[in-house]
């Protein structure tokens, strides 16, 4: 039985051949997405993940500057120097 990947292209057909530049399809889609995102954020603001303290503490490898809204404490927090700090 043939594998589903037998006919899978070895390159992304939406990337111009012999180039690392995006095709016009990707460029147009990305521009539309960014325009919509800017409009959404200017109207509704940015949302950060809402987590309990238990959920926050289960994050395997929090990154410096990562932000959450801690629903247990009712405050926004960010990760800095190995510690979750409230705003």
Outline of the structure:
By secondary structure, the chain is of the alpha+beta class. The chain has helices at residues 24-44, 53-57; strands at 50-51, 67-70, 75-80, 83-86. A 4-stranded mixed β-sheet has the order 1-2-3-4.
Topology, element by element:
Layout: H1 24-44, E1 50-51, H2 53-57, E2 67-70, E3 75-80, E4 83-86
Parallel strand pairs: 1-2
Antiparallel strand pairs: 2-3, 3-4
Explain what you see.
This protein has 87 residues and is an alpha+beta fold. The protein has 2 domains: 10-45, no CATH class; 47-87, no CATH class. Helices cover 30% and strands 18% of the residues. The chain has 2 helices and 4 strands; from the N terminus they run αβαβββ. It has helices spanning 24-44, 53-57, and strands spanning 50-51, 67-70, 75-80, 83-86. The protein has a 4-stranded mixed β-sheet with strand order 1-2-3-4. The longest helix has 21 residues, at 24-44. The termini are far apart. The model has no long low-confidence stretch (mean pLDDT 82).
| Beta-strand content | 15-25%
Residues in helix, %:
25-40%
Strand arrangement across the biggest beta sheet: 1-2-3-4
Q: Average pLDDT, to the nearest integer?
A: 82
Number of strands: 4
Q: Extract low-pLDDT stretches.
A: none
Cα-atom Rg, whole angstroms? Answer: 21 Å
Broad structural category? alpha+beta
How many helical stretches? 2
